[in-house]
Amino acid sequence: MQRLLTGLTLCAALVAASPALAALKVGDKAPDFTAPAALAGKDFNFTLSKALKKGPVVLYFFPAAYTSGCTAEAHEFAEATPEFEKLGATVIGVTAGNVDKIKAFSSEHCRDKFAVAAAPDGLVKTYDVGMKAAGVPMPGGWSNRTSYVIAPNGKILMAYTDGNFQGHVTKTMDAVKAYKGAK
């Protein structure tokens, strides 16, 4: 049993430490979805196509609410949300882990600045962001840490996967700024 736990811990550490390519590529059409979400502790349904009508969308997948890296990443996105909003961008975090806690997480760690959604069945697979170790999906159905910037036409402008939360906000902000500057 101890060997199994050590092996699973090692696999998780390797997944978290190594950058990987995002499944969907720049220029791909982002699949539309509707998901149960929360903003400032209030439930609503988030629909990607509706958000894209307002401007670009920063869609970031994270493994699970209330884990250390995901909490720190939520804090960074919360701090940056006012600047994203000035650029006309919507931020949405999506998780398949601890989905029963997104309402509280949206208030406590997203600081009422942006919404967080529970990945509906199949969304992690559709975006191909499931956690994998050596290319094999890990049990639990959690997503890896992948950030996308999606243009209002639905095309992916930026895709970035890295188990380390640091860098996701900077990369997505740079992509939104580049998009706004090119318009």
Mind explaining what this structure looks like?
Helix 3 (68-86) runs parallel beside helix 6. The strands form 2 sheets. The chain has a 7-stranded mixed sheet with strand order 2-1-5-4-3-8-9. The protein has 6 helices and 9 strands, in the order αββαβαβαβαββββα. By secondary structure, it is α+β, with helices and mostly antiparallel strands. Helices cover 36% and strands 26% of the residues. The longest helix has 19 residues, at 68-86.
Question: Would you list the SSEs in sequence order as H and E?
Answer: HEEHEHEHEHEEEEH
Low-confidence runs (pLDDT<50, min 5 residues)? 1-20
Q: How many beta strands in the DSSP annotation? A: 9
Percent helix: 25-40%
Radius of gyration: 16 Å
Task: Report mean pLDDT, rounded to a whole number.
Answer: 86
Number of helices: 6
Strand percent estimate: 25-35%
For the biggest sheet, the summary is: 7 strands, mixed
Distance from N terminus to C terminus (CA atoms, Å) equals 57 Å
- The largest sheet has its strands arranged as 2-1-5-4-3-8-9
Pick out its properties:
183 residues, alpha+beta, 7-stranded mixed beta sheet, two-stranded antiparallel sheet, 6 helices, 9 strands, globular
Summary, kept brief:
With 183 residues, the chain is an alpha+beta fold.
